[in-house]
Amino acid sequence: MRFLSIFISVALLLTACSSKVEREWMEGCIPVADENGIPTIICVCVYEKMVDYYGGEERLAELNEISKTNNMSIASKTLARENYVNTRMFTEQCKAEYGIE
Fold first, then answer.
1. Model pTM?
2. Residues 53, 55: Cα–Cα separation, whole Å
3. Residues 40, 10: contact at Cβ < 8 Å?
4. pLDDT in tens, 42-88
5. Under a CB-based contact definition with an 8 Å cutoff, are residues 36 and 101 in contact?
6. Which bin fits 38, alpha (ψ -120 to 50), beta or left (φ > 0)?
C-alpha cells in the first residue's frame, strides 16, 4: 500500500508541476530504476539532491546538455564523471533514507 501511494505521488509530480529539466531527469531515471527493482521515489529523491548539490535546475540542465554532446574535452569528461559519481552517491543515500537495500 505504501508503494502505491508513493507511485501516485510520483505520477502527480511528473505530470502536474514538474519542469522540463525534471521531466527529462525522470524519463532517464525511471526505466533504469525499474530495470534494477528500485522504486521510482528514489528518482525523485536523487533529483532533489542533484538540484541542491548543483545549486538549481539551471546548472543541472547545463550538465544534461553537455552530456548529450560528443564534446570529449577534459572539462566535459570531468563533469560527466562527477555527475556519474554524484548520481551513484545520492542513489545510495536515498535508498538508505527510504530503507531500501
1. 0.77
2. 6
3. yes
4. 999 999 999 999 999 998 888 877 777 766 688 778 888 888 899 99
5. no
6. beta
